[in-house]
């Protein structure tokens, strides 16, 4: 199975900050990676697909980059509604595997 | 637009079988290219993919659960289902159904909490 190592596991930041979350795959996955946002009691919501494509309706402050084994999710200017948990997902080879999650908290 | 809705018992006794159904509305489960998935999230934990089914009936399961899992599809009802046998407390989780279309899971159900307890 492909392991996804996501960091950091938690992050404190302020409104307006720029934040970066990374995922590293244990082997190359081309660009078969997505980023998801999950708020308490809700299903995950996809923000980014194919490593860098923005889901329709998602604010442009979210961006993704990377290919192969190293991937990044960047939020350019944090808004109050962005405080949530974020997961990466690789779907290059079954089983699909998620990163461990990054909990983004208000400083 | 397409929506998914999970249904099934919220409480299952240890050693019994957990059974859930996902109803697809606003689109056909038989459309080419769509894979229909089950994913779970234990309390306070991350996401675990359980398996998928294609409308033709072909399946793929996570090896960690393969011996206990069956996913089936009923195209006439636009539904797919999960059965997890011999459950224990470790199977207590929120269970999600989700659609995969080339680029991972784009549409999710709201999730249903299943507790394993006597």
What does this protein structure show overall?
The complex is a heterodimer of chains A (107) and B (118). Chain A has strands at 4-7, 10-13, 19-25, 33-38, 45-49, 53-54, 62-67, 70-75, 85-90, 97-98, 102-106. Chain A has 107 residues and is an all-beta fold. In chain A, a hairpin with a 6-residue loop joins β9 and β10 (97-98). Chain B has no helices and eleven strands. In chain B, β5 (47-53) and β6 (59-61) form a beta hairpin. The A-B interface holds A 1, 32-34, 36, 42-46, 49-50, 53, 55, 87, 89, 91, 94-101 and B 37, 46-49, 52, 60, 62-63, 96, 100, 103-106, 108-111.
Concise structural overview:
The complex is a heterodimer of chains A (107) and B (118). Chain A has 107 residues and is mainly β.
Overall helicity of chain B: under 10%
Q: Describe the main β-sheet of chain A briefly.
A: 7 strands, mixed
Total E-strand runs of chain A: 11
State the order of secondary-structure elements of chain A, H for helix, E for strand. EEEEEEEEEEE
Overall helicity of chain A: under 10%
What class do helices, strands and sheet pairing of chain B give?
mainly beta
- Backbone CA Rg of chain B: 13 Å
So how many helices of chain B? Answer: 0
Query: What's the end-to-end separation of chain B, in Å?
Result: 39 Å
Key structural traits:
A: about 110 residues; mainly beta; 7-stranded mixed sheet; 4-stranded antiparallel sheet; 11 strands; B: about 120 residues
Strand and helix map with partners:
The complex is a heterodimer of chains A (107) and B (118).
Chain A: E1 4-7, E2 10-13, E3 19-25, E4 33-38, E5 45-49, E6 53-54, E7 62-67, E8 70-75, E9 85-90, E10 97-98, E11 102-106
Parallel strand pairs in A: 2-11
Antiparallel strand pairs in A: 1-3, 3-8, 4-5, 4-9, 5-6, 7-8, 9-10, 9-11
Chain B: E1 3-7, E2 11-12, E3 18-25, E4 35-41, E5 47-53, E6 59-61, E7 69-74, E8 79-84, E9 93-100, E10 105-108, E11 112-116
